[in-house]
Write a structure and sequence with these properties.
279 residues, globular, mainly beta, 8-stranded parallel beta sheet, 4 helices
Length: 279
Amino acid sequence: MADSAIYVNGGNFDTFEPSGNRITNNVIHNTGRNKEFNVPAVSIRGVEPHVDHNEFYNIPLAAIMFSAAGDKITSVNSVIEYNKFHECCTNGVDLAVVYGGRDLRALGTKVRYNHFYNISNNMDAYGFSGSAVFGDDATSSVEITNNIVGPGCSGDNTEAFKFNWGHDNVISNNLIIDLPTFFYIYKFNDFVDRIQKQYDASFGSEPGVTLTMCWDNANYQKNWPWVKAFKDGEGYYVPNEVSNNVMIYTDNYPHSVSGWSEFNNAYYIYNNGNPGSDE
């Protein structure tokens, strides 16, 4: 494909009526040949789009993008499951095979039962390579569960999972094989204040995109109580949960992980030397 392969959008954001859109049983490859920058193989928007049982390969940047800075249209309750990703994110840094960012409306994404292998590259920017899953710029309330990441991931700074100042995310029951970094998160100390200010302000780079557009919706408030708290001016930070993950290292030691999250029941298996650190 010269650029992107598939774009879907639909459903009713007022009622959370699902779109019924499903991308399934496809082989998607060699996208982004004319334009690589910010061109995912698949873009999903709308209510509860499903991407399942596909194979993605030879994708220079993101294979799937569920939200993007400056887009007036977002997604909610997206499901990405039972896919194979390899040779993806081969020409990008600070990006991921599955990516969403700078859109606090895109809540409820589920990334589960996927296999990521032979991904990323050896490029580096600000200490970042590519990731399997990246929730950028306040992406929140994402569940990443029961995935396999590795082996064969390139890059000295490749992360399995990364979040940039998001909260209320769950990373659980994943198997990580020979990645230098299992999980990375950055959080501003004034997270609550930053989000509160965004409630009525333009969010991202597109004028007129505000959290008010969705956060006044009773369905958002019911599904994510922290949304109502921010709407009422009483916002709070929900720690990210990282639990019951298994990491296998055969040749390389993992980088340490720390901060802004609750880590429980992490299991490490080492076949060669120093076990590194999980502090």
